[in-house]
Amino acid sequence: MTSRPRPAIEVTKLGHHLGARIDGVTLRPDLDPRVIEEIRRAVLTHKVVIITGQHHVDDAAQYEFAGLLGTPTKAHPTVLSRGEDLLPLEGAANSWHTDVTFVDRIPKMSVLRAVVQPSYGGATMWASTVAAYAALPAPLRVLADNLRAIHTNDYDYAEHLTVGDSSDPEYRAEFTKTVFRTEHPVVRVHPETGERALTLGHFVSGFAGLKTSESADILRLLQARVERPDNTFRWNWSPGDIAIWDNRSTQHYGVADFGDAYRKVNRVTLAGDIPVGVDGRPSVSLAGDASAYSVVDTPDPVPGFVPASERSITAPID
Ligand SMILES: O=C(O)CCC(=O)C(=O)O
Ligand SMILES: [Fe+2]
Asked: Whose CA is nearest to atom 9 of ligand 1?
């Protein structure tokens, strides 16, 4: 009998479909490659992981650590006035979304650090878009499999975001200074795990071939499936926490329940691939060139991937 090597990190599962905590790791530039690999695997499996106790991590160390998990993108496709590497956000992103879905090369992961926390409130929530898809009844799954959505940064943010930067006119102007529009499959096949995931969120402006009113109804229907509380994980930040999420299998939401208190988070995103639908069709860029923002990083499938929960449909990956 062969015995497995002892895990190098301690992962505690915190939610059935997503969410785990990693303790006992100190993030340093010379982190053991085995630890990095185990963190990467934990992110794929649990979709969002929180690494606690990283009080020593500043902006530079956050960026450096993110670089151990992949290739960092620029801070943002358009918002670069606050630095080219990290995207600081004041307030909260209080609307369900997947990061930067308006470009063709959606980031694979985001690494978030709470820099200033309010004395109460200000949690972040994540939802599993894999579990949401797998819970769809068969007719809705067939519908979703065949839909393509248009995502744009020129979306109706007033409909969604109400606090801090997100609702600040100057920030919005910079956010939309170049307009990006991309057509993505509504169901993408995760390039590493093979899991099928709904790809929606607040950047969706409609579905290819449908009328505006029809798009709104179908988006509401599918998006409601993602946001079901049973399908979410919520983290109340403590100093020194770092969150890493798989941006291909989740949406997230910053909870704006801290009144007028100041809250600041810093984000680094890692380059991802061009999504592919269940029919093998890739996403198509319709407006805007994202090549200055991010390289396209197409990873290999992970052999022997074991999903976090039974609510997961995997398609074979070629
Ligand atoms: O406000 C939050 O907790 C979430 C921030 C967010 O959406 C992001 O950094 O991508
Ligand atoms: Fe976000």
From this structure: 267
267 close to ligand 1 (CB < 6 Angstrom): yes
* DSSP code of residue 303: T
pLDDT digits (tens, 9 = 90+) for 49-97: 999 999 999 999 999 999 999 999 999 999 998 899 999 999 999 999 9
Question: Any idea which of 10-14, 59-63, 79-83, 156-160 has the lowest mean pLDDT?
Answer: 156-160
d(CA 138, CA 187): 14
Return the residue whose CA atom lies nearest to atom 6 of ligand 1: 93
Q: How large is the C-alpha radius of gyration of the chain?
A: 18
250 CB less than 6 Å from ligand 1? no
**Is 279 buried (19+), middle (13-18) or exposed (0-12) by CB count in 10 A?**
exposed
Instruction: Single out the residue of 299, 318, 315 nearest to residue 307, CA to CA.
Output: 315
124 alpha carbon, closest ligand? 1
